[in-house]
Amino acid sequence: MPNLGASEILAILVIALVVFGPRNLPELGKNVGHALREFRRTTGRVTDELRAELKAPPPPPPPPRQGP
C-alpha cells in the first residue's frame, strides 16, 4: 500500500471540500469517525470470539454405538 505524503493528503482534502462543501464536511467527518469506531469495535468482538473458540478444548467424542 503506497504511503500518502502531505501533498496527496492536501489534494484529497481540497477535492472533498469542493465536492461536499464547507458546511457538510464536518458532518461527513463525524459520520466517518462513527463508522470507523463501530467497525473497529465489531472486528474486535469477532477477533475475541475467534480466539476464544481456538483456545477452547475440543468437544468429547460421541459414545460408541451399541449393536442392534
From TrEMBL:
The chain crosses the membrane at residues 6-25. It is a single-pass membrane protein. PANTHER family: SEC-INDEPENDENT PROTEIN TRANSLOCASE PROTEIN TATA, CHLOROPLASTIC (PTHR33162:SF1). It comes from Deinococcus budaensis. This is Sec-independent protein translocase protein TatA. GO terms for biological process: protein transport. Gene3D superfamilies: 1.20.5.3310. Residues 43-54 have a biased composition (Basic and acidic residues). Its main location: membrane. The lineage of its organism: Bacteria, Thermotogati, Deinococcota, Deinococci, Deinococcales. It is found in: Membrane. Residues 56-68 have a biased composition (Pro residues). Residues 43-68 are annotated as: Disordered. It comes from the Bacteria. Keywords: Membrane, Protein transport, Translocation, Transmembrane, Transmembrane helix, Transport. GO terms for cellular component: membrane.
